[in-house]
Amino acid sequence: GFVPPFFVDPRIAIETVATGEDYREVGLQRLFAGRVDALLEINLASIGYYLRSRGYQARVRIIPLPIGKTPIYSIFRRTAEGERLAREYDIANAQGRRDGVFEGLLRKYLE
What we know:
Blueprint: H1 23-32, H2 44-53, H3 80-99, H4 101-110
């Protein structure tokens, strides 16, 4: 997984979760049991939703860290259909950013 450069330090032990497991649930249970001191989550919006949806928000303090933005990549097949879908995706993505759709969804579901 993604590890910010300032976490690459011999004093910090990174534990991972097996593929296929709900890494957030496993990490949170480790945190609640005192087995780890902190969790790293790069998506503040999704972890906020996850905590609220499970009733954990009162048990966890979120401390935003200066990790910067992490690029997200979408992949389409190199076919005529894939190219068409990529163009439509780019148009919808640009329109959603311009019209504030994404921010509206975040407010609706995460606040």
